[in-house]
Amino acid sequence: MAKDKREHVMLVCAETGDINYYTSRSKTSPKLELKKYSPRLRKHTVHKEKKRK
To answer: Tell me, what's the pLDDT at 4?
Structure first.
């Protein structure tokens, strides 16, 4: 069976700590840090990658 070259990650809001998004990324790329919409704050905030269990 072939090894998967992508891994599934969660995007966690840096301000509230809420998990708002799930995505996948290449295992060789650097950690994700994106500006995404936070529904609790109703504005765009920085979301950082956290490994999915």
So the answer is: 83
Give the E-state strand segments of the chain in sequence order: 6-13, 19-26, 33-38, 43-51
Tokens of 1: 């069976």
Question: What is the spatial distance between Cα 21 and Cα 48, in angstroms, rounded to a whole number?
Answer: 10
Nearest by Cα to 41 from 21, 13, 22: 13
> What's the pTM?
0.85
> For 6-51, which CATH class?
mainly beta
H runs (alpha helix) in the chain = none
